[in-house]
Design goal:
This protein has 336 residues and is α/β, with parallel strands linked by helices. It has 8 helices and 11 strands. A hairpin with a 2-residue loop joins β3 (51-57) and β4 (60-66). This is Ankyrin repeat protein. InterPro entries: NLR-like, Nucleoside_phosphorylase_sf. It comes from Aspergillus lucknowensis.
């Protein structure tokens, strides 16, 4: 872990990084180049229960925000509680990244060959589509609420640059993942032998037809092999990066029929679902980055969550290199 040496002013921190869950926070913290001491002049707003860590990545000073254990389980409150408190306590923040896990909507036959551990970035038609997933899961008609605004212009420019760089040289995500494990070897395997922050093996990444329900058990060993979607092999564990719409709601989708119905409402560029930002406020400049940990169907389990948290965090780290710190400083802070 980088030493807590620097002590800056709280005004020096201009980018917020939201990772509400403990596993997401662990991955985010592991990507920091340095961890800083609590900045001078910082005091939390009286309503603020967030947990903060300060540090830097490259030339950017940023603050990572996660939720207290008794709060992060209240999914429908996550976005509002975290962001309003962040703005109140850190009024110098210009932009924020929302980085964590999500469910992939894989449709290989339509060009969306999304695998577990891959990365989805919310672009271009708004980062998040608000959906009433509770209503959808009850079999009622899906009701589209709204799209939040486009990510900040600096992020959109950075996305253009990083895409071009990936065409030429590939992504640095595998490098950052390797560095994370070298600095934090305990992340390969958790103390209680839960899956670590490493690729979980191609044999544990299985996509089933929407009509195939999961057979109860800790894995898909009893599920119908004949209903498994046949996909071309990947020769490397390097995660692929996809850009599209991320649908968000208050209830996790664990049913393929519900998932497909929501996609039909949103459009074919909807490639990910998540629940943390279900009440996201539209006037917050945001870019959402999700690591894929399941396929939003009855076969979902927790095995890939830590690795997916790490791939999303590694992409966020790489993206920051394409955003000039001087340009961030010139932007107007997020209004409280």
């Amino acid at each position: 872990m980088p030493p807590r040496t620097n002590r800056l002013q709280h005004e020096d921190y201009t980018i917020g990084w939201i990772s509400p869950l403990p596993i997401e926070r662990a991955a985010a913290e592991a990507m920091l180049d340095e961890i800083h001491a609590v900045p001078n002049g910082f005091s939390t707003n009286e309503t603020d229960t967030n947990i903060y860590i300060w540090g830097c990545i490259g030339e950017h000073n940023l603050v990572i925000a996660s939720l207290a254990p008794d709060v992060y389980k209240l999914v429908y409150k996550v976005a509002t509680v975290t962001l309003l408190s962040l703005v109140a306590s850190l009024p110098s923040i210009r932009f924020w990244l929302w980085v964590g896990i999500g469910s992939g909507i894989a449709r290989p036959d339509k060009g969306w060959d999304i695998r577990l551990g891959d990365i989805v970035v919310g672009q271009p038609r708004g980062t998040v589509c608000h959906y009433d997933l509770v209503k959808a899961s009850m079999g009622d008609e899906c009701v589209q609420k709204s799209f939040i605004g486009l990510p900040p212009g600096l992020f959109l420019s950075a996305l253009t640059r990083i895409k071009a760089a990936h065409e030429q040289k590939g992504s640095k995500v595998p490098i950052f993942l390797q560095e994370m494990l070298m600095k934090n070897p305990q992340m390969r395997k958790t103390p209680n032998q839960d899956p670590g922050y490493t690729h979980q093996g191609f044999e544990n990444d299985r996509l089933f037809n929407a009509s195939c329900d999961h057979i109860p058990g800790p894995d898909c060993g009893g599920c119908d092999v004949g209903s498994e979607v046949q996909r071309g092999p990947r020769d490397k564990t390097r995660p692929e990066i996809h850009y599209g719409i991320i649908a968000s709601g208050n209830t996790p989708v664990k049913d393929a029929a519900t998932r497909d119905r929501i996609v039909a409402e949103v459009g074919d560029d909807c490639i990910c679902m998540e629940t943390e930002a279900g009440t996201l406020i539209s006037n917050f400049p945001c870019l959402m980055i999700r690591g894929i940990c399941d396929y939003a169907d009855s076969h979902k389990n927790d095995q890939w969550q830590r690795y997916a948290s790490a791939t999303a965090a590694a992409y966020a780290k790489e993206l920051l290199a394409y955003i000039p710190a001087a340009e961030v400083a010139r932007e107007i802070p997020i209004p409280g």
